[in-house]
Design brief:
single chain, 243 residues, alpha+beta, five-stranded mixed β-barrel, 4 helices, 7 strands, 37% helix
Length: 243
C-alpha cells in the first residue's frame, strides 16, 4: 500500500493537534528571543546613559563602594598604587594573544582601595611564568577609568602561579582581607593608551542583539513552515487525490 501523510478519522485530529502545538511552541520561542533583544537594547541604552554621566571622583567612589548601580560609570581618581599586592590573572586573552590581566589596588585613603584592571601583558613564549616588566609610578597618581564587574572567573584545576602573584582567578573576599582595606564589590578598568608596559585594547560590550533577532526569525520561520506542511499534506494533497 502506498504511504501518504493523509490520515483519516481521529488521526487527522491528532495531526492537527501536533501542528498547533508546534506552531505555538515555535512562536513562543520567537517571542522569547524578541523579548531578550528588547531587554538587551534597554540595557545598552542604560549603559550609554551611565557612560555619559559626569565622572565619579574619590568622594563619590568611597560612598558607593558597595553600590552596583554605579557600574559602567566613568571615574576620575587619585591615590597611590599598592604594587606589592599586584595580581596577574593568567590565560586572559586580548585580540588573538594569551597573556596576563594585571590587577593592582589603588589606595584612595587608609581604609579604602579600588582594584584597578591596569591592562594586559603578553605571556613569555618560552617561560610561561616569567612576568613581563611593567612600570608603576610612585607617589600620587591620577587615573581615568570605568566601573566594571570583577574579572570573570575561569575554570582552573589548581591555583598554580609564581610567588602568589600569578593566579587563575581572584578570590575577592580573601583579597580584601589580605589588603586590610575595603575594596567594595566592583573593579575599575583603566582607560588610557598603551603605556607603562601595559596594553589596554579593551573589547567593547557586545549584547549580540542582532543574534537574538536572527534566532527569532528562525523560530517564526519554523512556525510558518509547520502551517505550510500541514496545509499541504492534510488539505491540498487529499483534495487533489479525489476522483
Amino acid at each position: 500500500m502506498r504511504r501518504t501523510w493523509h490520515l483519516r478519522g481521529g488521526s487527522r485530529w491528532a495531526w492537527l493537534g501536533l501542528a498547533l502545538l508546534g506552531v505555538l511552541l515555535f512562536a513562543r520561542l520567537g517571542l522569547w528571543q524578541l523579548d531578550r533583544a528588547h531587554q538587551k537594547a534597554a540595557w545598552m541604552a542604560s549603559l550609554s546613559q551611565a557612560e555619559a554621566a559626569p565622572a565619579l571622583v574619590n568622594e563619590d567612589v568611597i560612598a558607593a563602594m558597595h553600590d552596583t548601580q554605579v557600574l559602567h560609570r566613568r571615574v576620575s581618581l587619585h591615590g597611590h598604587w599598592l604594587p606589592e599586592h599586584a595580581v596577574y590573572l593568567e590565560n586572559r586573552t586580548m585580540g588573538n594573544a594569551t597573556g596576563f590581566l594585571v590587577l593592582m589596588p589603588l589606595a584612595l585613603n587608609d581604609r579604602v582601595a579600588v582594584v584597578v584592571q591596569r591592562g594586559w601583558v603578553p605571556r613569555h613564549q618560552i617561560d610561561p611564568y616569567r612576568l613581563p616588566p611593567i612600570e608603576t609610578p610612585s607617589g600620587e597618581v591620577r587615573i581615568e577609568g570605568v566601573v566594571s564587574d570583577p574579572p570573570s572567573a575561569y575554570f582552573s584545576l589548581g591555583e598554580g602561579g609564581a610567588a602568589g602573584s600569578i593566579r587563575p582567578n581572584l578570590d575577592w573576599h580573601a583579597y580584601a582581607q589580605a589588603l586590610g582595606r575595603d575594596i567594595g564589590q566592583w573593579s575599575v578598568r583603566q582607560l588610557a593608551e598603551a603605556s607603562e608596559g601595559l596594553i589596554r585594547n579593551w573589547d567593547p560590550i557586545d549584547a549580540k542583539i542582532p543574534t537574538h533577532y536572527g534566532y527569532a526569525a528562525q523560530w517564526f520561520a519554523l512556525a510558518a513552515l509547520t502551517v505550510i506542511l500541514y496545509v499541504w499534506f492534510q488539505i491540498i494533497q487529499p483534495r487533489r487525490r479525489r476522483p
